[in-house]
Amino acid sequence: MFVKPQQLRDAGILGLNERNADFIMRFNPRRLYPRVDDKALTKELALDAGMAVPELYGIISNQGEAREFGQIVAERDSFVIKPAQGSGGDGILVVTGRSTRKRNLFRLSSGVLISEAEIAHHISNIVSGQYSLSGNPDKALIEYCVRFDPVFAEVSYQGVPDIRVIVYRGYPAMAMVRLPTRASDGKANLHQGAVGAGVDMSSGETLTGVLDNDVVDEHPDTGALVSGLRIPQWEFILQSSARGCDVTDLGYLGVDMVIDRDLGPMILEMNARPGLNIQIANCTGLATRIARINEIYDADANFEERARLARREFPAERQTSIEF
Amino acid sequence: MTKKYVYGLAAFLAIAGLSVFVYKWQVLDFPLSMNQETSVWTIESSISFESGPGSIKVNLLIPTLTPGFRMLNENSVSRGFGFSLNYGSGGREAQWAIRRADGPQTIYYRISVYEDTGTDQSDTTPPFPPPPVINEPFRTAVDVIVADVKEQSADTASFTAELLRQMNDPSPDPNVELLLSNAANRAEFVDSITTILALARIPARVVHGFELQGRMRNAEPVAWLEVHDGDRWRYFNPLTGEENLPARFLVWWRGNEPLISVEGGSNVQVSFAVQENHLDAVTIAETQVTQQGASAIDFSLYSLPIQTQAVYGVLLMIPIGALVMVFLRNIIGIDAFGTFMPVLIALAFRETKLFWGVILFSFLVALGLSIRFLLERLRLLLVPRLSAVLIVVVILMLLISLMSHRLGMETGLSVALFPMVIIAMTIERMSVVWEERGAADAMRAGLGSLLVAVAAYVCMGMAWLEHLIFTFPELLLVVLAIVVLAGRYTGYRLLELSRFKALTSR
Fold first, then answer.
1. What is the pTM of this model?
2. Could B382 and A15 be called an inter-chain contact, meaning their C-beta atoms sit closer than 8 Å?
3. Closest Cα to residue B253, out of B66, B68, B107?
């Protein structure tokens, strides 16, 4: 059931204690956390840097404005409403279109119709802090609804697949694609049962997947092979995540990106405490890569060079097929 | 860099804590284990006499050096007598004096001692005794005996043993018979032996004492022979020649001086009574410390009022619970809700006892959780929602108590001891995790919390540990040092060894 610690160390696996003590506490000062915990601020920082993010239609930050949301989306048929400080995908409302009969009836991604008043009520809940972890008053973001690229259509069950890149001191270190499943209720969250698939850093091609700490080859719902998918605009994705470090100053960062069918990769959010399952998805230890980045670290390198180095340094060792 | 500070701090804390601990343990004799009771003997000597017409002065020889025993306290009870302690030629003397007294008088001197094999109250090396003046025909007899014994012995010890053998021979030689003709009792017998030894230039003296055992109403002092071999004092049984001191032999006085002298009184009677008590070793250590004037005792928890002591008895175990928690979470890697929730639950288990504690806790959380899910539909805001959960928890506790009382199960009443705020927070956290990460994670973390609470309860309930921490609160510094070190433990957690197993099988 257990392996020896030395075996993990040889495999370069990063443990939780080491991640917390040596990387998060060292490279992520707490005062910078709002930059990633508040999605409105993250978006603002990313926009200032000229990075691609889902377009923001409006922010509602007090109860009185909740009724105005109708004007904000007057020109839009699809949009997403999310709490700025939510976590785990809670409180997110995805509107995919309007009723053909009445313009103030909205169709959710699940197909249910919902009235404008109900949405206003949901927004008012968000603003009052219903979904914020700390329970403090929050803001509701209304933004562009991503139409995700068909590359992952075969390996997703509803929901939006996203790409998680771990960026260490500005260098992309490891990446995975998170694919929603029926068990995860369409959320791209590994804790809830989404499949994570490792990514070859040099080519942007997916490797095997991980489901609940176990390695899997196929998507549990669609049965399609998880590996061998080529992620479009991989270079751009790596560059964007490398820039995520520039705008947040966080030295140990998880950057979550989605690929829009029309607009290409966009930064969805960032995370100051990214999980460690990515190692299982990639069948590779993070510690090894972090050690390598420490060796080649160059404070003056710009994001393009850092992304290029990541591609050069961290190719997948082989197309893995694990034998037990 | 940080590591260096951490190690430095941890080392400092550990050394500080351990050194105070060792000092109190080794030097001040605080007991390591609980209920370590030490037998305390109280020896009471009562002196009664008829007072004469004039002033009265009473001198009683009392214990000075007592190998194997340590004095706890001593006192005297007398009516109207002035009391003082002096050093005389034979050791310590208690002296009572009064200008005038009428009728029969009784004076008490009481001493309490306890066994302490560690006390080596070494006596000074005596000078060689001057050759005693012995009148004929005894002189010749002694000379013959000494020459004879010298012939058959090698050193002081064997000389004494051989001498005692000859003196105790059932068919004694005429010289011995002559010497012993005027030894009326054991003390005089031993006294005559010391005279013979003095002639052989061997320092020797009589020791009088008591073999302490249980309760003795009329204890008679027993004479023993003490011989100095140039290095240390040795004890001989004057009747058998065996070199030993009986177990629990309390030396009362040495030499051949009379035990008691009363000036101005008559018809003097001295009797001894021995009483064995059991005293908590902590009490003894404290009395000892107070006598020595060490200041460590001022900070001892035993100086607090009893009720406060009871509170601290529990409070001091919380760090142990926290230590267990740190270990289970950071070294083992068990998921649990909240940082200290399990420790507080473990505290509640102390009152409810484990079995019922676990059952009541699970029941309460399960009920609260289902009601929390009902509340979820109302979409309440955070603070009102938490308050609602809290109120529900209080109502549930009340109901459980009432129900179990009706059913005649009094254990159910102890549910009131659960920290309700903690339970409300647990329910809230659990439902949030349930929503965010699914039922499996919530159940796992819930069970993890329960597991940590049980482990903390077991560790916090160890009586010896509780005693140890309570008697040596400085050990908390060591606990702190361990926790600080664990804070810099960056190795793998035990459960990660299984979680990342797949990565090593290549």
1. 0.65
2. no
3. B66
Distances (CA, A) of A234 to A169, A317, B157: 20, 18, 98
Domain boundaries, chain B: 37-122+261-283, 138-248, 318-460
CA distance A59 to B452: 43
Domain B37-122+261-283 CATH (choose: 2.40.50.140, 3.40.50.450, 2.60.40.2250, 2.60.120.10)? 2.60.40.2250
CB contact under 8 A, A3 and B501: yes
Show which residues on chain B lie within 8 Å of chain A, measured between beta carbons. 330, 333, 379, 381-383, 435-438, 441, 487-494, 496-506
Q: Do A21 and B438 touch (CB under 8 A)?
A: no
Using alpha carbons, select from A284, A239, A232 the residue that is nearest to residue A258: A232
Size of interface A-B (CB pairs under 8 A): 103
- pLDDT tens for A232-286 read 888 899 998 998 888 888 889 999 998 888 888 899 888 888 888 888 888 888 8
* Contact (CB<8Å) B436/A13: no
Interchain CB distance below 8 Å, A8 and B490: no
Q: What is the DSSP letter of A18?
A: H
Q: Is the per-residue pLDDT at B216 higher than 80?
A: no
List domains and CATH numbers for chain A. 5-50+148-313 (3.30.470.20), 56-143 (no CATH)
Nearest CB to A191 within list B382, B437, B498:
B437
What burial class does residue B332 get, using C-beta atoms within 10 Å of its C-beta: 0-12 exposed, 13-18 middle, 19+ buried? middle
How close A262 gets to chain B, by Cα (Å)? 31
User: Does residue A126 carry a pLDDT above 70?
Assistant: yes
**Token pair 């030097």 is at which residue?**
B27
Tokens of B249: 């032999």
* Chain A residues inside the 8 Å CB shell of B506: 11, 283, 320, 322
Q: State the DSSP string of B438-474.
A: -HHHHHHHHHHHHHHHHHHHHHHT-HHHHHHHHH-TT
